[in-house]
Amino acid sequence: MWMSSASAAGCRWLGAAGSLAVAVGGLAAGTLPSREPWGVWVPRGSGITLAATVLAYAGLTLLVAAWWRYGRLLAAGARDRVLVTLAWWTAPLLLAPPLHSADVYSYIAQGAMVLEGHDVYGEGPSVLGPGDLGADAADSVGGNWTDTPAPYGPVFLVLAQAVVKLTGGEIVPAVLGMRLIALGALALIVVSVRALNRDGGDGGCVGDGRAGALWLGALNPLLLIHVVGGMHNDGLMIGLMLGGVVLAVRGRWVLGSVLVGLAMMIKSPAAVALLFIGVMVARRDGGVRGVVRGLVLPGPVAGAVAVGATLAAGTGFGWLRTQSVAGTIHTALSLTSDVGLGLGLLFGDGPEPVKGVVQKLGLLAALVVIGALAWRAWKGRLDPVLGLGLSLVVLVALSPMVQPWYVLWGTVVVAAAAGTAAAGVPVGEGSEGSRDGLRGRVGLVLAVLSAALVYETAPTGRTPWYGFVVAGLVLAAALLWVRRGRGAGPRATVPRQVRASVADGRRERTRP
């Protein structure tokens, strides 16, 4: 056990070194602004940029390797302060420039647009002129998004607006302000994951249940790079949504629906959680009354939050019409977009009409699968929180636009699902949610995907061809490792204490 703890400390050092290398490399090879008057994040010569890129990729590989090994040690029974490890791996990224994405510049520009009185849902960041607030951020927005209206809800725009107002739109302070929001999102995720996995030890030194959840849901390099490094608002959506699920699991479904409503006003996919909160309400209350309450009440509560937030923000209801704008931009990770494009080129007069049909069919198929998962959860055959995680995975897989960090939507929820039986979620006899196998397989697949997809985008935010090659090689290596029986980290499974709780629940024969 002592040797395991010592090795875990070595992983902490190795991951911190990797994170530091990513941050230092990012100073020359990150997603730098086009104009930066402070002289901190400015382009360097080609030789320095190349060396910085190599350093950043080497650091990323160290971080992934440390994460994988750390998970194996935790699975083998090592007890370690996982939150200390998280702090070590996060700290080097705090002052780094944006990494692997230019989206934060869009966020800042959209906050400035609100302050300047522009219609953020009718125009893109290009409307900001050289003398306007946030002009440097607008000039740094990636090409696809320059003229794209905001697809985000008013709650996020209020946060972006506050950052711009407090920093005067200066690019470096504004980016660091957005990173503070990202750190808040990470804290929400950690608190929620721990709340759903209450079987751990004291002081953050945890055993297999909570350790596995934190390993997959918070220490995940895909999350550290894209939520902390890239400051994607998906982290805030996940944190609020998962906080709402925690409250619903504890029987406070009204407050839970309020938090989910706020999460929807960051990004709309959080609305899927309302369906599974409804399932929890229906199973807890039982009978026709429970079904009616579950189907009817969570949605209006979240809807009232959405309306109130929109009116308070003063940005209008334009977010209702911009939810599909992202789907107009082709991403290679979208299965339905790729299939639709191929079919359109082969059999259609033009690719776009066929691609649009295939994308809609993909979303329809996702809704059918999500409905089936909710039905199984209501019948007691699936843990509702795990059902939510699987639903978000399916939604991403069949979405018309897929970015690597979208995988985190379902990954964090699946990671958190290990503790829901102990927290009192009613699960019926033979429930797939109570079996170690399902969570283990899903968690393992998501861990492998996380390790591979973190390479898909370059530190500059671009998506080069070699990113797909490296991601494919990592995916193949990880699958080979797993097939040889070495596995990944601690699975998002149900630990002993939770299995005992499930056994008690079976004896009580909770009603469907």
How is this structure best described in words?
The chain has 512 residues and is mainly alpha-helical. Helices cover 64% and strands 1% of the residues. It is built from 21 helices and two strands. It has helices spanning 2-29, 46-75, 82-90, 103-116, 135-139, 154-167, 171-195, 208-217, 221-229, 234-249, 253-264, 272-285, 287-296, 298-313, 335-347, 351-378, 384-397, 407-416, 436-453, 465-483, 496-508; strands at 80-81, 205-206. It has a two-stranded antiparallel sheet with strand order 1-2. The model is unreliable at 199-207, 419-436 and 491-512 (pLDDT under 50).
Key phrases:
single chain; 512 residues; mainly alpha; 21 helices; 2 strands; 1% strand; globular; disordered C terminus
Task: Give the strand order of the largest sheet, numbering strands 1, 2, ... along the chain.
Answer: 1-2
Summed over residues and divided by their number, the pLDDT gives a mean of: 86
Approximately how much helix is present in the residues? 55-70%
Write down the secondary-structure element order.
HHEHHHHHEHHHHHHHHHHHHHH
* Strands, count: 2
Q: Segments where pLDDT lies below 50 for 5+ residues?
A: 199-207, 419-436, 491-512
Largest sheet: 2 strands, antiparallel
| Portion in beta strands | under 5%
Q: Tell me the overall shape.
A: globular
Rg, please?
22 Å
Q: Which structural category fits the helices and strands?
A: mainly alpha
What's the end-to-end separation, in Å? 44 Å
Number of helices: 21
